[in-house]
Specification:
Length: about 500
């Protein structure tokens, strides 16, 4: 099987090829390493160590030969640079952690390695996962494979670009306010975040602890389901991890949609939604009707408050989490300073980029004496109202569907000078994050300048299998998820 042929295979197809011995894990790893090197201009990868990858591939081949392989053994994967790894640098795409080598693997990385997956390296992202465009990385912008003048989305832009360009068949990612779904939509791939607490946060470099959740980016819903089988599960090391029985996330992939009720929020189709995005999303909803589903009008009246609520809670938690980077224990330390206070000031100023500094300042303000009750507590109350509205909506429907973003991917620099405009990119994704429900983006067409459009699907808590099944049935009926950017 040639290198171009291999790169077009899904995770499921690669797993079957490895099991049938039609390709070895070493051959597969070499093929992807060559593609990564060939497409370095995307700036998707930050740390690639072929000797590490090939050693893991040889171990996978030995495991397959012994007959104790899993469906994922030997399949390559890349990790967002927000997960710590022993064998690759873990920097959160920040100068603050430049060159940092972790003494342990994040639980998500450990679980996937335990299933036999082979790591291709670490992927670029917005610094400390803060951003919607991947323009905030200390290591430079990631380019969108569909249009290199456009952003790939953020913060998981490196993960999205790598999967879209087929230089990795799958990539881990994280979602705080939409950082899996938005880049998946902008880059024309499948991306899913599970229920908060489903995936371990142990070893994820924290941004906003009550919102951060690990997820996966793949070509298809079927691939995501296979990886979730190995990736999700209770972790006693993570106090936010939910203890539930193990389940097979592929079990609902071929479910009948004839009794499915899809809720369409009125608030997601109002002012600000661009016509090209609305057209593609409406056509996707029409396809679901053809497949037997029923559309139900629903309302999420306080969803519009998601942005202000998020930008109180997330910066507050960021201010607390990033206080550990003070130049004393680990991370960047200024070369010249007067006393301890001067060292901390200079180290933090030099180590953090503009966006983390902006959010730290906002967060410190809302947590300060006299403002905590007025801002932070009020934001948490509205968060509960938004979560309750989702529960009321799920009494009327099984799945909620709508756009992921208001527009297709925008150009580099278009919103960089206007942080508020950038924050509004997450208008449709943040409400689900505040509620902690699972959500995903699947490709559903193309809009302006032939840039991809994503359809957002959300389900109730712990219904990832249902969500993946609904996405899979759409992907069986359409081919948007199989489209590959020109030149890749």
């Amino acid at each position: 099987m040639s290198a171009p042929e291999l790169s077009r295979k899904s995770v499921a197809e690669l797993g079957r090829a490895l099991s049938a011995r039609s390709v070895s894990a070493v051959e597969l790893a070499r093929s992807y390493l060559e593609r990564i090197d060939r497409h370095k201009d995307l700036n998707a990868f930050l740390d690639v160590r072929p000797e590490v990858t090939l050693a893991q591939a040889r171990a996978a081949d030995a495991r397959i030969a012994r007959g104790d392989a899993t469906p994922l053994t030997g399949v390559p994967i890349a990790h967002k640079d927000i997960f710590v790894t022993r064998d690759f640098a873990s920097t959160a795409s920040s100068r603050m952690l430049k060159g940092y080598m972790s003494p342990f693997d994040a639980t998500v990385v450990e679980k996937l390695a335990g299933a036999g997956m082979v790591s291709l390296g670490k992927l670029n992202c917005d610094e400390f996962a803060m951003g919607s465009s991947n323009e905030n990385s200390f290591y430079g912008n990631v380019l969108n494979p569909w249009d290199k003048t456009a952003v790939p989305g953020g913060s998981s832009g490196g993960s999205a670009a790598a999967v879209a360009a087929r230089i990795a068949p799958a990539a881990t990612a994280t979602d705080t306010g939409g950082s899996i779904r938005e880049p998946a939509a902008f880059s024309g791939i499948t991306g899913i975040k599970p229920t908060y607490g489903r995936a371990s946060r142990w070893g994820m470099i924290a941004f906003a602890s009550s919102l951060d959740q690990a997820g996966i980016m793949t070509q298809s819903a079927e691939d995501a389901a296979l990886i979730f089988n190995a990736m999700l599960g209770f972790d006693p090391k993570d106090s936010t991890s939910v203890e539930r029985p193990a389940e097979d996330y592929t079990r609902a992939l071929n479910s009948d949609l004839k009794s499915l009720r899809i809720g369409v929020p009125n608030e997601f189709f109002g002012e600000g939604l661009q016509p090209d995005v609305e057209k593609a999303v409406r056509e996707a909803l029409a396809e679901y009707v053809r497949l037997g589903a029923k559309l139900v009008d629903i309302s999420l009246p306080n969803a519009e408050l998601g942005i202000p609520v998020y930008y109180v809670i997330a910066p507050a938690e960021c201010s607390s989490n990033l206080s550990r980077f003070d130049g004393v224990r680990y991370g960047h330390r200024a070369a010249q300073y007067g006393d301890l206070i001067d060292m901390i000031k200079k180290s933090r100023k030099e180590g953090f980029g503009p966006e983390p500094r902006r959010r730290i300042l906002i967060g410190t303000y809302v947590l300060s004496h006299g403002y905590y009750d007025a801002y932070y507590i009020q934001a948490q109350k509205v968060r509960r109202i938004i979560a309750d509205e989702f529960q009321q909506a799920f009494q009327q429907c099984d799945i909620i569907a709508g756009p992921v973003t208001t527009s297709v991917a925008f150009g580099f620099g278009e919103k960089a000078a206007d942080p508020v405009s950038m924050y509004l990119s997450d208008l449709y994704t943040i409400p689900g994050s505040l509620a902690g429900i699972p959500g995903m983006s699947i490709p559903c067409g193309f809009g302006a300048k032939n840039r991809p459009v994503g359809l957002q699907l959300m389900s109730n808590y712990f219904e990832e299998a249902k969500l993946l099944g609904v996405a899979h049935r759409y992907q069986q009926a359409t081919d948007w998820h199989t489209r590959i950017p020109g030149g890749f």
